[in-house]
Structure prediction request, 235 residues.
Amino acid sequence: MNRYPLQRHVLLAVDCIIFGFDGHDIRLLLIKRGFRPEKSKWSLMGGFVQQRESPEDAAVRVLKQLTGLGGVYLEQLHTFGNPGRDPVERTVSVAYTALIDIHRYEKQISDDYHAEWFLLSKKPKLIFDHDNMVELAKKQLRYKAAFHPVLFELLPEKFTVPQLQSLYESIYDTAFDNRNFSRKVLSTGLLIKQKQKDKVNSKKGAFYYKLDEKKYKADFKAFLNFVPNPDRFVL
Prediction:
């Protein structure tokens, strides 16, 4: 096979940032690294891209291998290529993010690599530049959530308005006024009220809602500017 002259190889890796919602808080899925350096320290799910696979294929494979998670939609976040980011060898990493409902996937997660969910506010220090990856992913998530109803990917099929509010408050690390939040979210017309109530987390019982998929696809802009002054959260 021909090679470019006078060029040294660079390793290409992928890292997966998996955000999940447990009904009350936003969490981050981490594993303990299985090899040196930094063995047994907390890490994102990562691995090297093989000769005959794309970065996207590698991300799917790595996530399945290290956590057992399959069928998860991954979105490319950013490429991290600081020359000193890996102390062993020059490595460029393509980071991917995913949003999932924890309860929908909890039975898939493997214990082989000690995968564990952490509150974003209480996550441990991560290896290499993985903390920087998480911070950038958080900023992107906040930006998207301010202008697009992307956070519904983190919710179960049926959810309550208080659950949705808890999700937004967890993402933005702030409190929203209960009445204003409920009024704004219901005024979008994107939610379908159900007959059932959640009587576990509320004394009076909070009605469940479903996302109206048809209206969502036709008019997702109903959620534009849903978060007031989003720049103060995302810049």
